[in-house]
Amino acid sequence: MTNTFGTSFKVTTWGESHGKAIGAVIDGCPAGLPLKESDIQSDLDRRKPGQSTITTDRKESDRVEILSGVFEGKTTGTPISLMIMNEDSDPKSYDHLKDVFRPGHADMAYFVKYGHRDHRGGGRSSGRETAARVAAGAIAKKIIDADIKAYAVQIGSIVAKKRDLEEIENNPVRSPDKDAAKKMVAEIEAAKAESDSIGGIIEIIVSAMHAGTGDPIFGKLDSLLAAALMSIGGVKGVEIGSGFSCAEMKGSAHNDQMNKEGFTSNNAGGIAGGISTGQDLIIRIAVKPTSSIGKKQKMISISGEETIIGIEGRHDPCLVPRIVPVAEAMVALVLADRR
Ligand SMILES: Cc1cc2nc3c(=O)[nH]c(=O)nc-3n(C[C@H](O)[C@H](O)[C@H](O)COP(=O)(O)O)c2cc1C
């Protein structure tokens, strides 16, 4: 099982959704970097559950503790160990899922592969694991020059028309369009009222990006970003720059032409031949509707019997608002690893 990400800035995450704690070990962080828990906490607070009526009711403070690798407020170059306690785990509420697989979740495939699973909230396959990535990503953000911003551009049928970056943290869906945000919240609430869920699209812009990151062959920056972002549970698609819409463009329209001031467009999303061009990186990810829904659905049990299942309890009716900081973290981890 692959629990480690990166080759020079290496992050290993550990822990299960309803175990004692979760955390990350970061190996390869340079010495002398000023680091305190509050540098990490602000990003964790953006991902934590229970932030609004449109996120899961699970109440976790997600307080991070630095256990090693920092002395007198600076990193020592040794492994940094981070821990976040699970304060509101409720393993008993998963008893009814011990012998049955949730449709759309990792349960069935995990059981077929490993034969033994932690059924409590999906164990390692839970979105809770991503708190550890966000904590590691906050450190990665400190060692890269680029600025990473992610936000919701679509939820269900509602599309953001504006890109007002000041607005993102002012609304619970993290959209840069205030008016669209209200409609997005209403779509999520409507899905929740029907015991259903809804998906969306997150855009990630990396500005102040210097040219030269990434290699031309297997280390193509676009391929590394796609792999990192697709490793987030619930992410089902990645676009760079013009993305899938390039299929209906002519070469003359798609090519990013240059004049003395620089590029006149950015259809490539800031990457050519796998190497950053110095333009902003433009990335979009498609997030599926949450698989855990109260609506009754057909599934099979461990013994192969057909059953009807509705998932009661705590889950996010839309994953988009909580995946926003996770997406930023994964992009930061790629850039820190390739700096
Ligand atoms: C922050 C975050 C929170 C999540 N919350 C839930 C949830 O409440 N219920 C659920 O069914 N899936 C949730 N997921 C998605 C599952 O982790 C994911 O669907 C599962 O691991 C299977 O992976 P796949 O969807 O990529 O195939 C969450 C994911 C993230 C990143």
What does this structure look like?
- With 339 residues, the chain is α+β, with helices and mostly antiparallel strands.
- The protein has one domain: Chorismate synthase, AroC fold (4-Layer Sandwich), CATH 3.60.150.10.
- 24% of the residues lie in helices and 23% in strands.
- The strands form 6 sheets. The protein has a 5-stranded antiparallel beta sheet, with helices on one face. A 5-stranded antiparallel beta sheet has the order 9-8-10-16-11.
- Strand 2 and strand 3 form a beta hairpin.
- The site of flavin mononucleotide has 21 residues, from helix 7.
Question: What is the CATH superfamily classification?
Answer: Chorismate synthase AroC
Q: For the record, what CATH class applies? A: Alpha Beta
Q: Gyration radius, to the nearest Å? A: 20 Å
Mean pLDDT, nearest integer? Answer: 95
The shape is: globular
Report the order of strands and helices. EEEHEEEEHHEEHEHEHEEEEEEEH
Helix content: 10-25%
Strands of the widest sheet, in order across it, are 1-2-3-7-4
Topology:
Elements: E1 4-5, E2 10-15, E3 21-27, H1 37-47, E4 64-68, E5 70-71, E6 74-75, E7 80-85, H2 107-114, H3 130-143, E8 147-155, E9 158-159, H4 178-193, E10 200-207, H5 221-230, E11 235-240, H6 251-254, E12 258-259, E13 262-263, E14 271-272, E15 275-276, E16 281-287, E17 297-300, E18 306-309, H7 320-337
Helix pairs in contact: 1-3, 1-7, 3-7, 5-7
Short structural summary:
By secondary structure, the protein is α+β, with helices and mostly antiparallel strands. It contains seven helices and 18 strands.
Features:
339 residues, alpha+beta, five-stranded antiparallel sheet, single chain, 23% strand, Chorismate synthase, AroC fold, 7 helices, binds flavin mononucleotide
